What we know:
The chain is an alpha+beta fold. It folds into three domains: 1-90, CATH 2.40.50.100; 92-157, no CATH class; 198-414, Chloramphenicol acetyltransferase-like domain (Chloramphenicol Acetyltransferase, 2-Layer Sandwich), CATH 3.30.559. It contains nine helices and 19 strands. Strands 9, 12, 15, 16, 17, 18 and 19 form a seven-stranded mixed β-sheet that branches. A hairpin with a 4-residue loop joins strand 4 and strand 5 (46-50).
Amino acid sequence: MSIVEMKVPVIGESVTEVTLSQWLKGDGEFINMDEPICEFESDKATLEFPAEASGKLIYVAAEGDDLEIGALVAKIDTSVTAGADAPKESPAPKAEAKVETAASSPTPATASYASGHPSPAADKILKENGVAAADVKGTGKDGRITKADAQQAVANKASTPAPTPEKKAVHTAPAPANSASFSRGTSRKKMSRMRRTIAKRLVSAKNNTAMLTTFNEVDLTNIMAMRKKYQERFVEKNGIKLGFMSLFAKACAKVLMEMPDVNAQIDTDTNEIIYHDYADISIAISTPNGLVVPPVHNVESLSFADVEHKIKELAGKARGGTLTLDEMTGGTFTITNGGIFGSMMSTPILNEPQSAILGMHTIQQRPMAVDGEVKIRPMMYLALSYDHRIIDGSTSVTFLVKVKKLLEDPTSLLLDL
């Protein structure tokens, strides 16, 4: 018997432990080399673990186990060959297939059991977005559905308006009365590694920084008028809508270049302040597993369309669980938009080691005094949480006022004035 031990590989400098979130192959199942056998959940991303040899898979760790780097996950008995101990009806492989170019599509006579089956990553994306695998055409080997196929199917679904169903008389049985009245039931569920990491980081930010929050409000009349006037032409040229996030990101990036303290961070090991001559703005994105904050690099140098495309790309990867560790690393400043959930005002918590975070909120029509008259304006509260160890109160207020002025006069932002 020849055994190959499968151990947790080195994933990144800052990753010391992972969680075995799910097995992708059964215990005792024959697997081929490079087929993903399980998924690891690290602090920042979900990763597939490929087999290092072909043979019979033998479980060592269990789903939900926390494993240190180098810990034994499974063994592969390479003395077992395909078909020897394999089940008569093997389930369709879940491994990600490489796209191969063929002269012609496989005929029914040559199509394999992989046809129409999604890879693990593709299956996850389809399930999270409510897309049936049967509705997706696979472009991978033997017709397998790849990540790219799944992401394209999700994008097609988002861009296709839902059909209006015909109105029919629906007779439903009345719900049983008091079905959950006076329930005293409880349940327990282990926190995901990402949720545990988020919890640690939030507590650390609260305990290890001198965090304060300052507020202001911005009149979005001119921005909304500009978007209404130029949106169609912007989409025609760039293939994407001009959203609020790129305008806020560009305004913040401009002011960050003028006020380097807000864009800096403290190196507590050396008691030095690290300044950045670029603005890598982290964008908070809500996912089924928690909040992630991947950065858009060099926002100060990107166009509005570039920022919009990058945010869309990162959001798609975040919700599909395909963000890489590199895409999650860095950032000199963060923007979070609680307004999409209806938040009117909040005090966002710092994203360490950054020194400041801007909170956007819901837009509300409110009566405002304008040139001695009361007018209804679309208003948004802004919140800037900052580390008082490096940013003075006057600096934080000045930063927020500068951002407010740029947003209320977007022409000056476009002209870089």
